[in-house]
Structure formats: structure tokens, C-alpha cells
Write a structure and sequence with these properties.
The termini are far apart. Strands 1, 2, 3, 4, 6, 9 and 11 form a 7-stranded antiparallel beta sheet that branches. The protein has 277 residues and is an alpha+beta fold. Helix 2 packs across helix 3 and helix 5 runs antiparallel to helix 8. It has a single domain, classed as Jelly Rolls (Sandwich). The radius of gyration is 19 Å and the shape is globular. The longest helix has 23 residues.
């Protein structure tokens, strides 16, 4: 039986901050997606180096890839229907000018580091009253973007902390690690097996984190402000569509939030430079 939307999925998404539509991509489309995804994986490493973990946006590679399976994915009635039942109208799940493929690095494991997407570039010390106030208005708004990982091959790289999207504050042990250099490149004395174990421990030691296991054709949607990470291994092919579910209506806050965030980060960087003088 194919995927069927259930009304309890709405509660699951709102309370946990992530949800998987199991097997929603039909096998016939999976076959077409794999042909192009394999080309894209090769191209990613050719153009961006062996350690690259993504190729994005796919619309930039129209000369080398046949984008029509990704257009079919964008137009897939089952996905459009499920997204509408989950979030209402008007939301879209496929955008070739945003969509990337997450791919496996070739030479050694790689870990993106724990983070909350929407504030990944704003460290707590950059928070002032203005950004705090604005953040409160976007934090719980479902129109503030939703992330998507849709697996073309089985994929267990993503970890998520259920419920963390509801809290605008962090609990003990919730610490951003996107700038930790040894996660991006294992120190020379570490073998790949050691690095893999270290990166896995880094996932497991984050409080209440769960590993999300996607089967081929599973579509995961997650709140951008929930704590999550990606832990990448070399020996399994990864080709996971990475895109957003976007609200297409007007919002009064979207541009203002971007501006205020930008201002806060700029001010913080200036202060840091000042303090160094
Ligand atoms: O690789 C993943 O599954 C997560 C990627 C991610 O968190 C990001 O690109 O912000
Ligand atoms: Fe992320």
C-alpha cells in the first residue's frame, strides 16, 4: 500500500518538530532520480573536491544533469497533497533553484556539527533586545521555513532532538559545534574508523538526540529551529534531496527578520574586531 496521510501526523510534527512521510516517492520515480543522482554525486566530487558533501542548487547544473525527475518530484501529487494536509495552503515543497543533493564524502568521515538552522550564524553573545523580540515572533511560526531531507538511497546521517524546536532556550549540553574543526577534518593521527566512532559519539552524547533512519523514498520534514546535525560516512552512497517547504503567501516579518539578524551579526563581528585592537 502506498503512503497515506493520517491526521495524527499533524500533532506529531507540531510536537516533535520532525516527521517522515514513509515511502511517499513511488519506485518508478526513484529509478529516474537515481540515474541523475548518481551523475550529480560524481559531478559534486569532480567540481567541489572529494570531501564535498553537497551539490546545490541543482538548477545550476542543467547542462550536465537531466532535471526532469527532480521536476517530477516537485510536481508529485502525493507530496503536494501531504504537505497541504500537514500545513494548509499555500506551501511548496520543491524548488530547483534551492534544492541540493547531500552526498557522501569520499576520503574521510565528516560531521556538520550540532546547530539550529535559523540562528546558526547568530551566537548567543550577539543577542540584543531587538533580535530577541523579533526571534520570538518567528520562532513558533510554521511559515518560517521547514527543512526537507528526501532520501534517494537509505540514509541514517541525520540526528534530531525531538521537541527542541519548541524551546527558544537551550538545555544543559545543547551547544552548537558547527565551528569545531576536528569534526570537519579528523586530526592526522585519527584513522577513519576512529573518526567515525568519535563523530558518532558526538551525535549520541547530545541530550535526547535521536538518529533518523530514512528508507529510500522517505521524505523527512523538520523545523529549522530544532537542534539537529548531519554525520557523514564515506562507504555508503548518499543522495538525499535537501530543500525547504516554503510558505508562498505574504508575511509581515520575513524581510524584517533577515535584516535584524544581519544587523546583529554585523554588530557582533565589529565588536569582536574592536575588542582585539
Ligand atoms: O546532512 C544533514 O542531514 C543535515 C544537513 C544540515 O543540517 C544543514 O545543511 O543545515
Ligand atoms: Fe541544518
Amino acid at each position: 500500500m502506498g503512503f497515506q496521510f493520517k491526521s495524527e501526523m499533524i500533532d506529531q510534527y507540531l510536537s516533535q518538530g520532525y516527521l517522515v512521510f514513509r515511502g511517499i516517492i513511488p519506485p518508478v520515480l526513484m529509478t529516474d532520480l537515481r540515474v541523475e543522482a548518481d551523475k550529480a554525486r560524481r559531478l559534486a566530487h569532480q567540481l567541489n573536491g572529494a570531501q564535498t558533501q553537497r551539490i546545490q542548487p541543482l538548477s545550476n547544473y542543467a547542462d550536465d544533469l537531466n532535471l526532469s525527475p527532480f521536476e517530477d518530484y516537485t510536481n508529485l501529487p502525493e507530496l503536494k497533497d501531504a504537505i497541504q494536509k500537514l500545513l494548509g495552503h499555500p506551501y511548496t515543497h520543491g524548488h530547483l533553484d534551492i534544492m541540493g543533493l547531500l552526498v557522501e564524502p569520499v576520503n574521510h568521515p565528516w560531521h556538520i556539527g550540532w546547530h539550529r538552522d535559523g540562528v546558526v550564524e547568530v551566537p548567543p553573545e550577539a543577542y540584543d533586545d531587538e533580535i530577541k523580540k523579533e526571534l520570538s515572533s518567528v520562532w513558533h511560526d510554521l511559515r518560517h521555513y521547514n527543512q526537507v531531507n528526501c532520501a534517494i538511497y537509505a540514509d541514517s546521517c541525520t540526528w534530531f532532538v525531538p521537541g527542541s524546536h519548541l524551546r527558544q532556550f537551550d538545555l544543559p549540553g545543547e551547544r552548537q559545534t558547527t565551528h569545531q574543526a576536528n569534526l570537519r577534518k579528523p586530526p592526522a593521527e585519527m584513522s577513519n574508523a576512529q573518526a567515525e566512532r568519535y563523530y558518532l559519539d558526538h551525535c549520541r552524547s547530545f541530550p535526547s538526540a535521536v538518529q533518523v533512519h530514512l528508507g529510500p523514498g522517505d521524505f523527512m520534514i523538520y523545523r529549522n529551529l530544532g537542534w539537529h546535525t548531519g554525520n557523514y560516512i564515506t562507504y555508503q552512497p548518499r543522495a538525499t534531496i535537501h530543500d525547504i517547504v516554503r510558505y508562498e503567501g505574504k508575511t509581515s516579518w520575513r524581510n524584517r527578520w533577515q535584516e535584524i539578524k544581519h544587523k546583529a551579526v554585523t554588530r557582533w563581528k565589529e565588536q569582536k574586531t574592536e575588542n582585539k585592537k
